[in-house]
Structures are given as structure tokens and as C-alpha cells.
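Suppose you are handed only two things: the residues of a chain and a line of SMILES describing fe (ii) ion. What would the bound structure be? This form records exactly that question and the answer produced for it, so the two can be stored side by side and reused later without any lookup.

QUESTION INPUTS
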Amino acid sequence: MPKQASSLSTWKDDYITGIKVMDEDHRQLFRLLDKSLVELENDRNWNVGAWQKEFNRYAAQHFLLEESLMEESLPDWPERAGHLREHRWYWEWVMGMHTRQDREEVASFLRSWWSRHVLVWDKRLGQALRALPPRIELR
Ligand SMILES: [Fe+2]
Ligand SMILES: [Fe+2]
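ANSWER OUTPUT
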């Protein structure tokens, strides 16, 4: 019997940063994450490798977007180093994910990392970017 929506990591409006390109990426990331969590929890033959290929590609592009926004627009922002560290730490965990046997641990890490990262770090980044003089492509 498939798991209920409680196992999902569904998008909520609290995640909105106010920076269009970041918000579009986040919506897509949470959509992919929901799909993965359902597969991870229901499919005995869930293929970590295949999942990583799709999700990691998207996550990598997204981190690159945020990191270039910081580099171009907020080079001296005091939170930049911490934000980059968070992204690196995420990769370290994900790269070692195939060694973890406990699916619930994997699901719970993914769910809580993305939720916390967006709510804490990305929202603060959004705030800092919105405080800058307007740049058309970010609105
Ligand atoms: Fe981020
Ligand atoms: Fe983000």
C-alpha cells in the first residue's frame, strides 16, 4: 500500500524567497523530492543511482545559480561562506548516501535538509538580494 502524503516534502508558500529564479527552482526541486520520497519508501528496488543522476543534476544547477548570485551581487556578504559550506556539506552527505541502508534515514535527511535550508539560508539570501538595487532578471 503506497505511503500517504505525510511522507512527502511538499512545497509550501513559506519557502518563497521573493527571488523568482530561486523560487522556480525550489518548486521544481520539491516536486522532484516528493516523487523520490514516494519511490524511496514504496519501491523495494528503488535505484539510488538513477535517482541521484536526476535529482543531483538539478540540485547542482540550483546551487550554482545561488552561488553565482552571491558572487556577483553579494561578494562581501558575511553569510556567503556559511551558505557555501551548507551546500558543500549537503554534497558530502549525498555522495555517501549509497552506503546507507536505512531508507527512513535517507528520506528524513532529504526532507529536513531541503526544508531547513530554504527556510533559513535561502530566505536570508532572498532578503539580502531584495535589499539591493533592482535587477530586472531577478524579479
Ligand atoms: Fe542555498
Ligand atoms: Fe536554494
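WHAT STANDS OUT: The CA atoms of residues 74 and 129 lie 8 Å apart. The mean pLDDT is 86.
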